[in-house]
Specification:
It comes from Viridibacterium curvum. This is Protein phosphatase 2C domain-containing protein. With about 260 residues, this protein is an alpha+beta fold. The protein contains 7 helices and 12 strands. The relative contact order is 0.22. The strands form 2 sheets. Strands 2, 3, 4, 5, 6, 9 and 10 form a 7-stranded antiparallel sheet that branches. A 5-stranded antiparallel sheet has the order 1-12-11-7-8. The chain has a single domain, classed as 4-Layer Sandwich (Phosphatase 2c, domain 1). The longest helix is centred in the N-terminal third of the chain and has 18 residues. It is globular, with a radius of gyration of 17 Å. Helix 6 packs across helix 7. The two termini are about 25 Å apart. About 30% of the residues lie in helices and about 30% in strands.
Length: about 260
């Protein structure tokens, strides 16, 4: 059976309120990590992200199945729950991103999915092997040939989402498909746009090779954000998950949900 280590780091950045939230749930066989970046008027973004993460974790704990279909159910359920919560006065514009990573230890399988622009990266053998594609206006423009990938971090409208939990209209969900096999040494990074906007993929990879553990990796990247971000920059949150053989020593201490 594989062993899983994880660490997380969240920062208010240049804002007065942290509207990012993350957490995890696991038992002896399976594990779930969830990350959300909330937004909305009257400070309701933090309410949105917490509602989404708690809904996902509680729902997964009630039916801990690792599959693409289960991720779709969790994302659609979170969307319905947030739409219900928007009846609260002053929360009409409340919405959130959501990224979910599910691991089956006993079968060495992983599934992931997301809505919005909070990303999931997979590093295998120390190299970037996969990253999710944002549900954003700028990503749509790039896909249509109206610019290159550099726009994703520089365009004035880079924060406009084409799909989000709690938005009206059809919910666009992206999932990884059938559960994929895990390999010892696989490392995942889940992060909000306030994180990846200032930490390019090459830097993520080089920082990973230089780090002694997951927390060190996150700290190195967070330092880059603090050194390069503009005044008043967004909250930023990163969650790192590493796969190892159960007989190997852990790479870091497991953190509690929402720490």
């Amino acid at each position: 059976m594989l062993a899983i280590d994880s660490a997380e780091q969240s920062n208010t950045g240049g804002r007065t309120r942290n509207e990012d939230f993350c957490g995890s749930w696991q038992n002896a066989q399976v594990a779930c990590w969830c990350l959300s970046d909330g937004a909305g008027g009257h400070g309701s973004g933090d309410v949105a992200s917490r509602l989404v993460v708690r809904y996902v974790l509680e729902s997964f704990a009630a039916q801990p199945v690792v599959s693409a279909e289960r991720i779709v159910e969790l994302l659609e359920g979170a969307h319905a729950a947030l739409m219900d919560a928007k009846s609260v006065e002053g929360a009409d514009n409340m919405h959130a991103t959501c990224s979910i990573l599910l691991i089956n230890r006993t079968e060495s399988l992983v599934s992931w999915g997301h809505v919005g622009d909070s990303r999931i990266y997979l590093f295998r053998n120390g190299q970037l092997a996969f990253q999710t594609r944002d549900h954003s206006l700028v990503q749509t423009m790039i896909d249509a040939g109206y610019g290159d990938t550099a726009m994703i971090r520089t365009h004035p409208q880079r924060s406009l989402l084409t799909s989000a939990i709690g938005n009206s209209g059809e919910l666009q969900v992206s999932v990884s498909g059938a559960p994929a096999p895990l390999a010892v040494g696989d490392v995942f990074l889940m992060c909000t746009d306030g994180w990846w906007e200032y930490v390019e993929e090459g830097l993520m990879q080089s920082a990973l090779s230089e780090s002694v553990n997951l927390q060190d990796w996150l700290t190195r990247m967070a330092t880059v954000v603090m050194q390069t971000a503009e005044k008043g920059h967004d909250n930023f949150t990163g969650v790192a998950i590493a796969v190892r053989d159960d007989e190997d020593s852990p790479t870091t201490v497991m953190l509690p949900p929402g720490a």
